[in-house]
Structures are given as C-alpha cells and as structure tokens.
Structure prediction request, 232 residues.
Amino acid sequence: MSTNRAVILVSGGMDSATAVYEAMDRGYDPFFLHTSYGQETEQKEHECAEALAEEVGAAEFLHVETEHLATIGASSLTDDELDVEDADLESDEIPTSYVPFRNANLLAMATSYAEANDCSAIFIGAHSEDFSGYPDCRPKFFDAFQQVIDVGTKPETTIELVAPFVECSKTDIAERGQELDVPYELTWSCYREEAPACGTCDACAFRLQAFQRVGVADPIEYAERPDYIEKS
Prediction:
C-alpha cells in the first residue's frame, strides 16, 4: 500500500475502468465507489465493477444504493416510461439518458468516502464527448465542485478532484487504455441490455466507434456492431 489513496467512481464501464488504471499509474491505491441507482443494467454494471476491483486488488470496494435518483426519475436509464434512444453521434442536445444532477450526488458521496479514509484524490472518468450532452460532466462543473470540496471538508483535509480525461475523446481513452492494459472485457457500457450489448444506444455507439478508430476489437459481446467510423 502506498501513502497515496484515491476514491474512484467506478460504474463498471470503460471510462471509469481506465480512470482506475490511470490513478494506479499515478501511484494511488484505489478505493472503489460503485453506485446502483435503478438503471436498467445495474446488475451487470455491479458485476463488472466487482470483477475489476478483484482484478486490481482494490484497497476497498464500497457499493451504495442510491434509489432516490430512480424515484426522482426523468431519465430513460431509470424510468420505464422513457425509451433509451438510438445513438445520434452528431447531436448536441441533452439525451434522455441524462440523470438529473447525478454526478453531484455521486461526488458528494465520494467526498465523504475520501475524507473518512484519508484519501487525497477523487477520480472520475468523464470526458469531452460526455459534456457536450451532460451538463454535470463539464470542466466548469468539476472546477465548481472542487470549491465545494475545499469549503465543505475539515480545514486539514485536502482532496483533489481529478477528471483525467475531461479534455479527451472516447478514442483517446481507448488508446490510453491500450497503453495501460485495461481489461475491457471486464467492463460494460450498454444502457439497454445486460447481455449482449445492444450496439445502438449512445453508450454502445461511442464505445464501438472508439475501438474502431483505434483498430482494436471490443472484447465484449454485441447484438449488432455497426460501423461508426463512417458516421463520424
């Protein structure tokens, strides 16, 4: 164990898995924080997060149920009355998959977890293609939340909020993951299905496009594997 500890928000997807390996590459011991909030694929995501924690020998694995996000609703990830839309990679509109203010909820828990365990950093895997559609993935949101952390913790507490890929594309993340040997077979991105991945929702589309651009086969199973390079 090093003296540097980091809480990492681990969804079970490829971005957060790469953030885990990025944190470890920077010398941090990973403390996993995984949340279930009523999303369609919560069981699969939980399994993937646990498998990754075992793979890297995580210092701790904390699983928190956040049912209030599903109760609040207004997202196709949690509301059965809203359909998960097919991907539109050119759209700048906020998609139905947006969970209102989710990252503020998750980062608040991560801050509590970090302060309680003397962690000096919190890592989140948000990236540039996220913040075009999700307002709580934008650099200015993370800058603002850093101020919340600084003001809302004990005077002697110092926690850095790290979004290492916030200016990167999904393709950049896939390339970095190849350098770090991230086991992407242990990750899941699909919004619709727990097996096989649909291949056509936003999450699948951005993931497949990234692997196609890097020239590496995505190791998980898909019902469809459209060519998303043509659509870029």
